[in-house]
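Quick question, first post here. What does this chain look like in 3D?
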Amino acid sequence: MMKRENGGEFTKGIAQPAVHALASIGVTRVAQLANHTEADLMELHGMGPKALAALKAALAEKGLTFADEKKSKSI
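> Answer (accepted):
Ran it through. Tokens below.
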């Protein structure tokens, strides 16, 4: 199971297929999610809207966003 930097699970509320999908692309920490766009993650087999929303919330807790959100905020 993936862990946050502080030791807590960031995959709480995320189904195992989504957890495995993230692991398949090397995402094991919340901060690594910020290197990916929502669209990229949605293309992963096992990733769905509920998991994506939970991941977005985990990013927000750390003051981070998905890669595509960074670009739109800087415009």
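The two ends are 36 Å apart (CA to CA).
The CA atoms of residues 33 and 60 lie 11 Å apart.
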